[in-house]
Design a protein that fits this description.
alpha+beta; Rossmann fold; Methionyl-trna Synthetase, domain 2; Isoleucyl-tRNA Synthetase, Domain 1; 4 domains; 6-stranded antiparallel β-sheet; 5-stranded parallel β-sheet; 18% strand; binds zinc ion
């Protein structure tokens, strides 16, 4: 158990996993790392602890360099553009970062280079000439995600050159069975190249000891790490034959960059340095966090990141620290909090298949605090958990019934019957004493769960506390009591007002907007001025004026929200990053040449034509929005390209069995036609 009441207060570096800059995070990313870390950081601040909370965009991943190559926009420009979008979204979600940075920043780049030179000087870097996969079609070495194939461990065909998503095994490209280039699908050849390796075997015993001696890391993480140490840690390449990234500082490695994972984890260090140097301009604060052995560093990550945070990262720190005096050593990880997966309606989230909700979409569908509450209430702490629309509706109902109603009943009664003024206490009866005791102990109970990273239990205990408030009110029935004894009724409402204050504080880390609203009704100071430990049975003094309250939550009309969600998915292209499509995914598309045999206007739809088409011998109907761009007889007899295996859907009552492909630029729409004579039904590939 951590003691959070000692003096001096503890120091904490709270971090969440670095999102890839090329993709907008989805709700699973958010609850797995950022949102959970935010709750923890907010709680620690309310406890008066010294906290710095950092993360940032991981800008040097392979997808961004591929996109840069394709679009001819410099990778740096793309990375910064997407970074700003993600940063802005995190602000909208009220993630209380002290510094949300990007790995492509000078502080990070310089610090990383220096660290690796020290790690080399301390004898943990080996040079090796190796065979590497090379695509002769793209004239490119194929590290990491540039190559796909079959996992040697679980035989899943979607494994990538760095890891198998199915079984979590960390891989090297050469281990893949049937490797293929992720860009063009060609089979690569072997070619010699030189790389610089981290000597993890040399660090193995110390890493095992570190994990063995750390009693608080979660059992699943401990097991995963000890297993991989048991199997023997491999030497892992630090460098890559890639242009985009941090230049490798080793002599002879001038054309190479540092593997993105080997530098992004160091961002936890450099983000604090950047914060100290450039944001608060107190450079000493960096040392006071990272170089104090008593500082606790906590990493909120998805389960796929455990090995990197508990083996590779501390390995780098141990190697770096070796020649340092104690006051210069960087502190080793204190704990990781890793979640299981969040599913969407029992399916795995997938951007390419459009399954899931992204964090920009969510905010267009329901208020922020509804999402924060729902995600935290169902946090996938010990098993994979599904987001279900029906459950979202129920959870908001639970929040409203137990917390919203209790607060609203209490405050409206005080407003109407006691002239906006908290009434005084008189003598307590037995049922009062029980509830008062609960008020006096609830912050300890919820605080203990939070200290132990049991965020789901913490928020559920708060909901139960609201429920107990309602039960207490119903039992004491002050609306009857007031007829004979106004003072006794006032006494009940005084107790309830203390519980309302307690709820405002307890909800602070979880749904801060709601918390501030409750505090404003109570005419209490803002959340940032109040402490977690300020909850007791006399927090709000008799005689204090309150404001007229408004209901805190509305019923979530889930049918309407789902309808909105559907529209979002169909209508708009995704903001922010683009995701790469694998060759396997591309192969699923059945694009064919079709002959337009007849064209009719669709009644009551200005833009639509009903097309009868032939795909070889097969006849089909297609509905296409071309009526404003083409006359019917311009289309008739044309050969066009269509997506033939799109799920059929009804448009204006007509079943459309495929989708016509056209080039679009603003108002110019041009159907794609083959430039040679080719029979209808021919495949486009
Ligand atoms: Zn596998
Ligand atoms: Zn290729």
């Amino acid at each position: 158990m951590i003691n959070l009441t000692s003096n001096p207060k503890g120091k904490w570096v709270v971090t969440s996993a670095w999102p890839y800059v090329n993709a907008t995070p989805h709700l699973g990313n958010l609850i797995g790392s950022t949102l959970s870390a935010d709750v923890f950081a907010r709680f620690l601040r309310m406890k008066g602890e010294d906290v710095v909370f950092v993360s940032g965009s991981d800008s040097h991943g392979t997808p961004i360099s591929v996109e840069a190559k394709r679009s001819k926009v410099p990778a740096k420009e793309l990375a910064l553009k997407y970074h700003n979008i993600i940063k802005d979204l995190h602000e909208k979600w009220q993630i209380s970062f002290d510094n949300y940075t990007i790995t492509h920043n000078p502080t990070h780049i310089e610090y990383v280079k220096k660290m690796y030179l020290d790690i080399q000087k301390n004898g943990y870097v080996k040079e090796k000439e190796i065979e590497s996969l090379y695509c002769e079609n793209d004239n490119l070495f194929l590290p990491d995600r540039f190559v796909e194939g079959t996992c040697p461990n679980c035989k899943d065909d979607g494994a990538r050159g760095d890891q198998c998503d199915k079984c979590q095994k960390i891989l090297t490209p050469l281990e893949l069975i049937n490797p293929r280039c992720a860009i063009c699908g060609n089979t690569p050849v072997n070619k010699k190249t030189k790389h610089w390796y981290l000597n993890l075997p040399k660090l193995q015993d110390r890493l095992k000891k570190l994990i063995d001696e750390n009693e608080i890391i979660p059992p699943n993480a401990r097991k995963m790490c000890l297993n991989s140490i048991e199997e023997g840690l491999p030497e892992r390449a630090i460098t890559r034959d890639l242009e985009w990234g941090i230049p490798a500082p080793f002599k002879g490695a001038e054309q190479k960059t540092i593997y993105v994972w080997f530098e992004a984890v160091l961002g936890y260090i450099t983000a604090v340095k950047e914060w100290a140097d450039k944001i608060i301009k107190e450079p000493d604060r960096f040392d006071s966090f990272w170089k104090d052995p008593n500082t606790k560093t906590v990493y909120f990550i998805g389960k796929d990141n455990i090995i990197f945070h508990l083996i590779v990262f501390p390995g780098l720190l141990i190697a770096y620290n070796e020649d340092k005096v104690d006051s210069e050593k960087l502190v080793l990880p204190y704990n990781v909090s890793s979640t299981e997966w969040l599913l969407y309606e029992n399916e795995k989230l997938s951007k390419s298949r459009g399954i899931g909700i992204w964090i920009d979409e969510a905010l267009e569908l329901a208020p922020l605090d509804y999402w924060r509450f729902n995600l935290l209430f169902n946090r996938p702490e010990t098993s994979d958990t599904s987001f279900l629309w029906s459950e979202f509706e129920n959870n908001i109902k639970t929040l409203n019934d137990n917390i919203g109603n209790f607060i609203h009943r209490t405050l409206t009664f005080i407003e109407k019957q006691f002239n906006n003024t908290i009434p005084p206490k008189i003598e307590s009866v037995e049922s009062d004493i029980k509830f008062i005791e609960k008020i006096n102990t609830i912050s300890l109970m919820v605080g203990e769960s939070l200290q132990n990273f049991k965020i789901r239990k913490a928020i559920r205990d708060i909901v139960n506390f609201g429920k107990e408030g309602n039960i207490f009110l119903n039992e004491r029935a002050p609306w009857h009591l007031i007829k004979e004894n106004k003072e006794a009724a006032g006494h009940v409402f005084n107790i309830c007002a203390q519980a309302v204050y307690a709820l405002a504080i307890l909800l602070g880390p979880f749904i801060p907007d709601t918390s501030e609203k409750i505090l404003s009704y109570l005419n209490a100071p803002k959340l940032s001025e109040l402490s977690w430990d300020s909850i007791n049975d006399d927090s709000i003094k008799a005689g204090q004026k309150i404001k007229k309250p408004q209901p805190l939550f509305q019923k979530l009309e889930i049918g309407e929200v789902k309808e909105e969600y559907k529209k979002l998915k169909e209508g708009k292209p995704k903001k922010g990053g683009k995701e790469l499509v694998s060759y396997e995914e591309f192969k699923k598309l059945d694009i064919r040449i079709a002959l337009i045999e007849s064209v009719e206007k669709v009644p009551k739809a200005d833009k639509l034509y009903k097309l009868s088409i032939a795909l070889g011998d097969e006849k089909r109907t297609l509905v296409a929005g071309l009526a404003e761009q083409y006359k019917a007889d311009e289309l008739k007899g044309k050969k066009i390209a269509i997506l033939a295996n799109l799920e059929p859907r009804k448009l204006k009552g007509i079943l459309s069995e495929g989708m016509l492909l056209a080039a679009v630029d603003g108002k110019i729409v041009s159907v794609l036609t083959p430039d040679k004579e080719i029979p209808s039904g021919a495949k486009v590939e």
